[in-house]
Amino acid sequence: MLTKRIIPCLDVKDGKVVKGVQFDNHEDVGEITDLAYKYSKDNADELVFYDISASTKNEVVETTWVKKVADKINIPFCVAGGIKNIRVAEAILNLGADKISINTPAIENPELITELAKEFGSQCVVVGIDSYFQDQQYNVYSRTGDPTTRTKSNRLTYSWIKEVQDRGAGEIVLNCMNQDGIRNGYDVKQLLDARKIARVPLIASGGAGNMDHFYDVFKSCNVDGALAASVFHKNEVKIEALKNNLLNRGIRVRT
Amino acid sequence: MIGVVDYGGANHASVVNAVDNLGFDYFISDNKKSLDDAEKIILPGVGAAPNVMQQLQNKGLDTYLKLSEKPILGICIGMQIMYETSSEGNTDGLSIFDGKVKKFVPRTNKPVPHMGWNEVRFDKTYSDLNGYYYFANSYYADVSEQTTAISSYGDKFSAMTSIKNFTGVQFHPEKSGSLGYQFLQRFLSS
Question: Which one of A65, A192, A229, B142 is most buried, by most CB atoms within 10 A?
């Protein structure tokens, strides 16, 4: 049986891992390669490397760091940040990434999802969705790495989920922005509805603050993985302890 | 020397990193003459069946690999193209393994692609390496007489298939942590 995945996310800005509250006030939490190696050794199921400033500055993810991380780990490695075309995606894969994740570039050019899936296969293409609850509905936002560039798109979260999977996305990371960084738990209500729509693997993101939050999101929403950043970086939740905790409560994870 | 077959396109990096980290010498090639120098050959696990087969045919590697007597390890797509056919783009494979590769049908509690860590149970040779390995596949082959490891996603499927000098694994040993490295180490040094 497939196990549930625990996924630490390295939000990287200017060569440092940072993590903010609701995408603002970023603070340094550590060196990139040290954290990557530690998570790989601690039995993390996957690592996400997200250059949060790339799309806000119209830049591409810092490739030197991609290679440094890829060389250090032997678990799946997903890279995100301003990947706007096949050529850039291919370069990143050639540096040792296993999947590429697109968010803002997908909103601005949905055809890119189709092209990437055709070129590299759906299993390689992750679409990240930054979703914010406002005016009684979930809206998709772009350029969220910096509060000054954050833009509400003309898309609604659930219809966007349908579109990206129809276009060939092989996985969806749903980041619930209202929860991000405030550690009150994942947005179970939104993720449950997203689960009903998603035929591809669905990863919960935003809101993890303790072990119970991971349990709740797996138990209530049956997501395939749970992504978190600050709780891991600050050592408030240790991956091995988390996995043992989940296993003891009947959630199947790899230990 | 380990020869890693180049299909064109992206990403030998993961498997090459693993081979390198394990201390084996390797080269990447799409050339028959060069591959003659390899003691073992790896067909890496990235790409789609139609493109991969097209590339192999263009270089005359389809027949070469089929007739080779070297130990050959196919990973993921590298395993799938060793079957008779794949429903991915209705592609004819190398017909090294009996059977056809088909697509997982998504259902409730069974999203597709099959992505993540799943349990693998080997027969004999690798049975001490049973455990969790990383998969990322939408296509699979049924369990057959040539199956040497089983995994399950709704139904059982072949996680490893072996005949003579050919081994195919549906999982990615290069991305499966220390257990995956042990698997590769054993294949490469056996």
Answer: A229
